[in-house]
Design brief:
Blueprint (H helix, E strand, L loop, with lengths): L11 H7 L5 H4 L3 E2 L7 E2 L16 H35 L11 H11 L8 H17 L13 H9 L8 H11 L8 H31 L5 E5 L9 E7 L2 H13 L1 H6 L5 E6 H11 L3 E3 L4 H6 L5 E4 L7 H5 L6 E4 L10 E2 L7 H21 L12 E5 L3 H11 L6 H9 L4 E5 L5 H4 L3 H11 L2 E5 L1 H9 L8 H4 L2 H13 L10 E2 L6 H15 L8 E5 L5 H12 L3 E4 L9 H8 L9 E4 L3 H23 L2
Parallel strand pairs: 4-5, 4-7, 5-6, 7-8, 8-9, 11-12, 11-14, 12-13, 14-15, 15-16
Antiparallel strand pairs: 1-2, 3-10
Helix pairs in contact: 3-5, 3-7, 3-8, 3-23, 4-5, 4-8, 7-8, 8-22, 8-23, 9-14, 15-21, 15-22, 18-25
Length: 626
């Protein structure tokens, strides 16, 4: 694929190999470097210290490390949500001309859930009140977060009775996490992990759910849309611009400017402008606009090596600095756009929603200029892979609930409950996160998903796992009968009929970007409240089969607070502490109902997840007599 001689690129798998062997204390959560007496390497195992210089046990060190990872993930998602809160505030004040409220019904639904009532029918007045409630969740007022009202009532009360409730500000939650875990402060592993659960809840509602909610208000709720995936979606004769990161605020405007500047691209000899998506910004545009899913985060450097990519536009999160090295060999413009995110080798275009159109126009113009540069280069090879697959994306929770209501107007969750009772559907697993080079060689995600489908377990995917499944063809309804077990296939055909489709729903449901994990939470909430079954008893689980980022640890912690079994591979950074491992995999069942599953072998992970959901399914229907 390379337009360079073989061996000149250093890609993620090369750097992973160079990193071997990795430190077992770092991998197992037993490395403490929060003060300058160390680093201390502590463990309950045979080799290493059983206490740090300050006396911290392996349990203290592993719990502190885990808590800090979760706080970092919560900070990332909350800051993501903050951007769209500020956009909504400015829309409500009439200060933004480039954006509008695309989904007033969603705005009304959120307001109703939060107990907000406007005194007039003015849409902007309601938007202002909702934005104020969101801002309060950063500033802190009242007993807890406003957005916690979006959590299933029964599970929220269950946790509150056990003293688990986030603070009224997500910023305060993150600050408290960093303070508690400083040297010489909180040292009780179980107490530290209770704080970690509260940080996970803050992420789930003042990060993920708030972000998705308000993005839907401004850009509209996704609906199923056909698209294509893989690097084969690049076009040799067009200006190829990839949007990379997580925020739709800029990328939605780039779609508009790409249309406007199509004539300019043709003037320089291109056949048009080909906009594609990388990582979760790609998911955002795919689920609302049908923009192709070109590459997941681990493939971003690979996209540059095709020689066809003229501009990569980066906003926030999961933009690996290795891209800066690869572009040195190419004409590709790497454009950072968020003022607090810079990458060596990139050009910076400062993006501000108040000047959104001008900023997006400049970015597209730089892409067109890079295309001219590409065409002017002598002996410059463009080599685009042929692979491109069909995918149906944008299966949002609202769409699923519409379909269920069409199938059973009197009792919308009945089709799910009946399928579970009959064993046609053994359970649902939300599969999230990023493709990790450690697991890529084993095709961890693909093997896990195929195994779950064979066992009549429905996978719902988000984030860069969405890219992996799109590339593998799992989002194509034409493959439902091939991939799904007989019972699950029957369910997907019935729902396809209810939706008015010519065939079944796809075997794997794409529910958007990583903040859109909140959509899975919303669907679980609807099933729980519709069936009057606590979320911690539902046959639903979560998996991050190729865990990379702190954000995924935080998302998984939120899922634990919903009472779900949560699988990760690689294992969480806690193996050096027997106490933390026991709390996370066993004791937590009595606290939230959820628990961690640590399994790096794909077949063993399939067995563990199927057993987890089927155990709950059988218990549920034995108790109800169904």
């Amino acid at each position: 694929m390379s337009s360079q001689p073989d061996g000149e690129y250093e890609l993620p798998e090369d750097r992973l190999e160079e990193s071997q062997p990795q430190c077992p204390f770092g991998v197992g959560g037993g490395c403490c470097r929060i003060c300058y007496m160390g680093p201390c390497r502590v463990t309950d195992g045979a080799h290493g210290m059983d206490r740090g210089v300050c006396g911290a046990t392996p349990g203290t060190v592993a719990a502190r490390n885990l808590y800090r990872e979760i706080a970092a993930g919560a900070a990332s998602h909350a800051d993501h949500a903050r951007e769209i809160v500020e956009v909504l505030e400015e829309i409500a004040d009439g200060g933004l001309s480039a954006y509008d409220i695309q989904d007033p019904e969603k705005l009304e639904e959120i307001a109703a859930d939060l107990g907000i009532e406007a005194e007039t029918d003015d849409e902007n007045e309601l938007a202002k009140l909702v934005a104020e409630a969101a801002v309060e969740d950063f500033q802190g007022a009242g007993e807890t977060l406003n957005w916690l009202d979006r959590m299933p009532d029964e599970q929220r009360e269950f946790l509150r009775e056990q003293g688990i409730q986030p603070k009224p500000s997500v910023d305060m939650e993150v600050a408290r996490a960093m303070h508690r875990t400083t040297q010489g402060n909180d040292a009780d592993p179980a107490h530290l992990l209770t704080g970690a659960l509260e940080a996970g809840m803050a992420d789930g509602y003042a990060g993920l759910t708030m972000g998705t909610d308000l993005q839907d208000v401004v850009f509209g709720r996704p609906q199923p849309v056909e698209t294509e995936a893989n690097l084969g979606t690049l076009e040799a004769d067009q200006v190829n611009i990839a949007v990379h990161g997580h925020s739709p605020v800029l990328s939605e405007m780039i779609v508009e400017m790409a249309d406007e500047l199509e004539p300019a691209a043709r003037e320089v000899g291109a056949e048009g402008i080909n906009l594609v998506g990388i990582c979760c910004t790609g998911n955002e545009l795919a689920e609302r606009r049908g923009i192709p899913l070109a590459a997941h985060s681990t493939q971003a450097e690979l996209a540059v090596t095709t020689g066809a990519l003229d501009a990569m536009v980066a906003d926030i999160q999961c933009i690996w600095p290795g891209i800066g090295d690869v572009i040195e060999c190419h004409h590709t413009k790497l454009l950072t756009t968020t003022d607090y995110v810079r990458i060596p080798g990139a050009e910076h275009v400062s993006f501000d929603p108040e000047t959104a159109e001008a900023d997006a126009r400049e970015i597209v113009q730089r892409g067109i200029a890079a295309y001219e540069d590409r065409n002017s280069r002598q002996e410059y090879d463009v080599e685009i892979p042929e692979e491109r697959t069909s995918a149906l994306v944008g299966i949002s929770e609202d769409y699923v609930l519409e379909v269920l209501e069409a199938a059973s107007p009197e009792d919308p969750v009945a089709p799910v409950v009946d399928a579970l009772a009959a064993g046609q559907l053994k359970g649902i697993v939300g599969i999230v996160g990023c493709p990790n080079p450690k697991q890529r060689t084993a095709d961890m995600t693909e093997r896990l998903i195929e195994g779950l489908l064979e066992e009549n377990v429905l996978p719902i995917v988000t984030g860069c796992i969405g890219h992996v499944t799109a590339q593998a063809g799992y989002l194509d309804p034409a493959r439902t009968d091939e991939l799904a077990g007989d019972g699950l296939a029957e369910v997907l055909h019935a729902l396809g009929d209810a939706a008015g489709l010519d065939g079944p729903l796809p075997p794997v449901w794409h529910m958007g970007s990583c903040v859109d994990n909140s959509r899975i939470g919303n669907l679980v909430r609807a099933i729980s409240e519709g069936a009057d079954v606590p979320t911690r008893e539902l046959p639903v689980a979560a998996s991050a089969p190729e865990l990379i980022a702190e954000k995924a640890v935080s998302i998984g912690t939120w899922a634990l607070t919903l009472g779900l079994p949560v699988h990760t591979a690689p294992t969480l950074h806690m193996d050096q502490s027997e106490e933390v491992s026991r709390i996370m995999t066993e004791d937590l069942k009595e606290i939230t109902g959820g628990y961690a599953i640590q399994e790096e072998d794909p077949d063993a992970a399939i067995d563990a997840l199927v057993a987890a959901v089927d155990e709950r399914r059988l218990a549920l229907f034995d108790e109800t007599g169904a």
